[in-house]
């Protein structure tokens, strides 16, 4: 195991800056997830740690060793790619053993280690098969096995579950978590899937356009997103963003009035006419059936009702924007498309963002 430290890492491809100002330290044995939309620089960071890319500037340490100029094969990291990159002509056992054979490890030791790894990943009965005789999930476990067998100090996983179907993906995700718990190897995991990020990570690093937006424990980033990008990236369906104008202690949302809670007024001291973005998660909206006027609510038109069993998703429209609502009950089926309903907002859960920079104000 080893800690991994990135100091001001930057990578430019000709005139495109893929990543910039990347600084963080992963303590020994932790599981960190790099997450963000396509093209945000996740893989570039991972490949730089692996030694498959060279940083344009900045320093990279594995353990206490500065590895900027250490070639990939001497870095003692094991990488698992999205496509598993197994050797098709080799059996499962040979695939797992390959890295050890290259390092001229004693053949008895190799055999023992292959058996131990195969047992921990439930691959014992598949050792003689070739990769094409395995399911996607089994191939994925072999790729992990090959990484584990090498007993590297750091695991680097690049979207390792993205080729699996939904059920297998959930199962393998849980296995990965268990495996990390058992092995305790420092792991850096890249995904654009926020459920994987939330469930696996000790810490998540949210990236956008090559820069770190926020680093933190998944729950605390979810509860206190640094900005609008983070807020809308984590959560499914995503947080609703409603442009609003502050006036006389209220927010005007497309000419409808929502009163601004006192605690927010006290802290923010918004100026008359100031434009902000209100943020409210779909689960913090509810149908104001009693039409209670004391409740902060917006009148919206129902556009779509999606029953999902235990919960129901509703898409609703204001004249020029739309909101998504997640009601934690089955069958809000009395609703019909085109109905106008009063949608209550749980103001305790309201977020406020600077409409220009996107920074969270509250
Ligand atoms: P995805 O989720 O789609 O895999 P990512 O977050 O992993 O994306 P990267 O692959 O790290 O993103 O790419 C970051 C940026 O760097 C992108 O704009 C990409 O086009 C650019 N980039 C990556 N590799 C190269 C390269 N070899 N040459 C030029 N540009 C590159």
TrEMBL record:
It holds the Pfam family OB_MalK. Keywords: ATP-binding, Nucleotide-binding, Transport. It comes from the Bacteria. GO terms for molecular function: ATP binding. The keyword Nucleotidyltransferase does not apply. Residues 4-234 form the ABC transporter domain. This is ABC transporter ATP-binding protein. It comes from Gloeocapsopsis crepidinum LEGE 06123. The lineage of its organism: Bacteria, Bacillati, Cyanobacteriota, Cyanophyceae, Oscillatoriophycideae.
